[in-house]
Amino acid sequence: MIKSTLITLMEADTDITDVVSTRIFVDHVPQGKSFPCIMLTTSSVEREWSNDGACLIPTSSIEIDCFGNTYKQAIDLADEVRLLFDGYQNGTTIQGMFLSNQVDLSDNVQPGTDIRVFRVRLSFDVHYVESAS
Fold first, then answer.
1. Please, what is the Cα angle at 109 between 111 and 4, to 5 degrees?
2. For the chain, where are the alpha helices, taking DSSP H only?
3. CB within 8 A of 77, min separation 6: which ones?
4. Torsion angle of alpha carbons 122, 15, 77, 65, nearest 10°?
5. Spatial CA neighbour of 56 closest among 46, 66, 68
6. What is the DSSP secondary-structure string of 77-88?
7. What's the pLDDT at 75?
8. CATH code of the domain made up of 2-128
C-alpha cells in the first residue's frame, strides 16, 4: 500500500514525470524499458506492539532508485525525488518520511559491453498509518 501511495505522489509531480513519463516501477525494471526511470523496493518493515496490540504505525525502509543514461540525469532525478519526499508528511497516511542514505551506483546494461546506466539509490524511512483490517 505505501509504495502505491508514493507512486501516486511521484506521478503527480511534473518535475519527476517530465523526466520519467510513466516509467515508475516496483521491485524491478522490466527488460527492454528505457531510461531514465524510477524503481521502488522495500528493504524492511518494522512494526511496534504494545500491551494493547499493534500500534499500526510501522516504519518501512524504502529504496527509490533513480536511473539515467548519464550520471547527471540520474543525480538530477534523485534530487527531484529527494525534494518531494525528504521531510514529507500528509497528516493522514504518511506521518513522516526522511532520507537516511544516498548511494551512487552504475550498472552494465549489457554484460560484456561498455554500455552503462547510472543509478542513484535514495533510502527513506517512512512512518505511515496501516489499516487494522
1. 135
2. 2-11, 14-20, 71-85
3. 16, 19, 20, 36, 38, 66, 67, 68, 120
4. 40
5. 46
6. HHHHHHHHHTTB
7. 97
8. 3.30.2000.30
Residue 63's pLDDT is what?
97
Domain ranges of the chain: 2-128
Note the pTM of the prediction, 2 decimals: 0.87
12 contacts 88 by C-beta, under 8 angstroms: no
Q: Which three cell numbers stand for residue 93?
A: 497516511
**Tens of each residue's pLDDT in the chain, 133 residues:** 789 999 999 999 999 999 999 999 999 998 888 899 999 999 877 777 666 666 667 788 999 999 999 999 999 999 999 999 999 999 788 889 999 999 998 776 666 667 788 999 999 999 888 775 5
Structure-block grid coordinates of residue 132: 487494522
Look-up of cell digits 497516511: 93
What end-to-end distance do the CA atoms of the chain give, in Å? Answer: 13
